[in-house]
Amino acid sequence: MKNSLLLIVVLFAVYSCQTTTTKTPSKPNVIIIFTDDQGYQDVGSYGAVGFKTPNLDQMAAEGIRLTDFYAAQAVCSASRAGLLTGCYPNRLGIHGAFMPNSPKGLNPEETTIAEMLKTEGYKTAIYGKWHLGDAPEFLPTKQGFDEYFGIPFSNDMWPYHPQQGTIFNFGPLPLYENENIIDTLTDQSNLTTQITERSIQFIQENKSEPFFLYVAHPQPHVPLFVSDKFKGKSERGLYGDVIMEIDWSVGEILKTLKQEGIDENTMVIFTSDNGPWLAYGEHSGSALPLREGKGTALEGGQREPAIIRYPGKINPGRTLQTPMMNIDILPTIAELTGAQLPAKNIDGKSVWKIWTGESNESPQEAYYFYYHVNELQGVRYKNWKMYFPHKYRTLGGREGGKGGLPADYEYLTFDEIALYDLSKDISETNNVANEHPDVVEEIKALANGMRNKLGDALTNVEGTENRAPGMIHK
């Protein structure tokens, strides 16, 4: 009898422990950490000079590092649209960077990653920079996010812009809590810390159910701001300090996942929206050994550092060279979570099998580099990158600006088709188009197929599948 009673007590104790233990969600959590204007070289494992990123380097050691990962376009709003919808931005009618009070934004009829995961029971949040329309109908809370804390557009769109009064006439920079403005920023020094603290709180509060967290840091976009705890810490100056604080933020998020016991059920993706804004010189990053930077379809404009970590699902310590783009993230998350893809056509394709090592073949025939309103400027095909004649901006070998002031760009032109073998010429210095006419013709054929879908302003082909951005109807 005593033994029976003892057994009952033990079983009850075990049951009680099980019912009070944190419930692990059946579906994986997803975190995307998205920085602004961070260059290809601006992570330790990608060759950073003058500062260290121990947390990102550890994340790469525990996950995978992508060497040929691209932003959807080389500018803020367009790149973010590509990430969140899985579409080339020009398919959505989005180009450039939305200005404050823009009558346009990401059309609410498009499906974002957040909306896709909401149908699977996910809690969703964005902390940081939105930049897909600041009118009430375009805000994150109308695009699938349960929570929003951050700024609605770039952090330089404020009255303290160095070209305020000559080129720009910006109003105040608002700080949002969901749909309400809670502050007007005059100092951004603590914003990275605030975003990190909000992210940690969200993880802690939602650890028992699946969640999607989008951490969209406004830094290292100019103007550069860093908290006192990282000020003066790097050999690279203020820019290095800023990256070190972002690295700290990544470390705090990863540490929280471990502390809450959900580390192995969470996929974390780190990348940036486009290359460095080279005009700002010492306040910009580096895309070396790539050519050019933000605002160009050249490698330095769109090839980004990208690190993915998912313990138990993605074998660690690997470097992948297969080309990929941020439009592929949405369908990859869909495959991982069992979510249904958007009803409207998208351009991305799942790269989950590449991340897990089951394949090294891209599911895409090629990647297409549109810029401005709808100009097809380049194509990545296997190891090849080809450019059609177009104009692009450059510093022409000159140094960028100093003290937060930009230098002036000059404009050069690709007068003829240029072809580069990136496996041998990552810096795009040797045009081999004449030596490989067969490759040129293959890529031309692929480009013509895409022009028939999305058009091309350079060749006067209007898009047939382009969709309009949302507009404010007054």
Automatic annotation (TrEMBL):
Domain Sulfatase N-terminal span(s) in chain numbering: 28-339
SUPFAM superfamilies assigned to the protein according to its UniProt record, in alphabetical order: Alkaline phosphatase-like
Organism (species): Roseivirga pacifica
PROSITE patterns assigned to the protein according to its UniProt record, in alphabetical order: PROKAR_LIPOPROTEIN
InterPro entries, A to Z: Alkaline_phosphatase_core_sf (IPR017850), Sulfatase (IPR050738), Sulfatase_N (IPR000917)
Membrane-spanning residues: none
Keyword entries, A-Z: Hydrolase
CDD domains: GALNS_like
Family per record: Belongs to the sulfatase family.
Molecular function GO terms recorded: arylsulfatase activity
A Pfam match: Sulfatase_C
Protein name per Swiss-Prot or TrEMBL: Arylsulfatase
